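Slide 14.
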Amino acid sequence: MTSPSRLARIVAPLCLALLVFSGSHAVGSSPEAWKQFRAEVESACVALAAPRMKVASIRIDPTGTASFGVALLTDAATGAQHVCVYDKQTGKTELGGALEMMTDPVEPFSPQDATQLSDLTPQVQATLDELAKKGVPVNGQADTVKALLDGKVKSDDIGSLPTGLYRCNVFWYGFLEEGARRVGTHSCTVSRAPGGGLVIEKTTGEHLHAETVPLESGQTGFAGRTWIDGPSERQYDPTHPANAENDNFGNKVGRVLRSGERLFLVSIDERGMTEPDPTYFEILELVPQL
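Slide 15: predicted structure.
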């Protein structure tokens, strides 16, 4: 008869071996294992979708649920979004139909964000007036945005902006009493939302997921969320404005304007800054990548 202690010494290595060699669908908790898992989900979902559509973009839950990997695929032709699920044990993959909008997309903003939107144009004007008074120059992007906000120049049609890859430049105005500070140049993508609007994704640096929203005034706004690399909330949520893991990031709203090939996201959001500044605004400028 085998003693319990000896049996344990035999079984433990066998269990470890099964975990290591149980196939490509075993998921570990190391960064490399999760990276491999996400690659498997992407490959399986794109392959399954190929007969039905060309995939414009794919967003993957970094770790999925306890049993499934989950991805959101966007159809390049229609902008429709489809949920793809991947069984972690078997590798079986299934693709859902196009998601439907179930809520009114007009002005889904929290009261605080609605106030921020109404204050945006006056604050942009106040910032530029203050900088002009001090003799501090700005740049052409600020001049273009001011003319579009004032209505002196009509914004080109936003919904017809071509989808694809964009270079996005971030400018701050009035920060520490400076004129135009280029904070960074990053990569962005533009895709079409199921309802016909645009989805703007800033994919490097401080991440942003934003969707265009029609305003009652006939203008166009955006509702979005910011985060840094890693699992995080990634959708605008009027009931939970700040990210749980870092409240320097969270909801972000503003106006969307277009001048020719360029798209501008204008915001007065100051999340993460120490004190509110009534003479500050930000422009995210999207320029097509050649």
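Speaker note: Helices lie at 4-21, 31-49, 111-133, 140-150.
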